[in-house]
Design brief:
Elements (H helix, E strand, L loop, with lengths): L2 E2 L2 E5 L2 E4 L10 E3 L5 E4 L8 E11 L3 E8 L13 E6 L9 E6 L5 E3 L5 E2 L1
Antiparallel strand pairs: 1-2, 2-3, 4-10, 5-9, 6-7, 6-9, 7-8, 10-11
Length: 119
């Protein structure tokens, strides 16, 4: 994804601050399924991503939600069919639901164009 002013824009309203050593024009961002937290509609900030639930897998001890960003940046490429979000098994969730997710920034992985970890 392209970098501008030290940030990688994932979607409308969601831009990740990058480590100062990320001086590349493009980076790859990796976010693990447990790197998200569901937040309320009033939550705000560059670390909040709006998604729509495309598929739900109830795994017993947890739920895996397969989600699509609501307004992805046109200049990014998502290499997986959906973002996978690990949620508490008690989360009420159905296909088509809208969620607001806060990214746990310390858990976001950033790689340079050669696949070397930045930060």
């Amino acid at each position: 994804m392209p970098v501008s002013e030290g940030r990688a824009r994932l979607a409308a309203g969601c831009a990740l601050p990058l480590p100062r050593s990320a001086d590349h024009a493009r980076v790859t961002v990796g976010i693990r399924a447990e790197g998200f937290e569901v937040v309320g509609a009033a939550a705000d900030g560059d670390d909040v991503l709006e998604v729509t639930v495309a598929r739900v897998e109830r795994m017993g001890s947890e739920i895996l939600a397969f989600c699509d960003p609501v307004a992805p940046s046109e200049s990014i490429t998502i290499d997986a069919p959906h973002l996978v979000v690990r949620l508490d098994k008690r989360q009420q969730l159905a296909v088509g639901d809208a969620l607001r997710l806060r990214l746990h920034l310390p858990e976001v992985l950033v790689f340079d164009p050669d696949g070397v970890t930045i930060g």
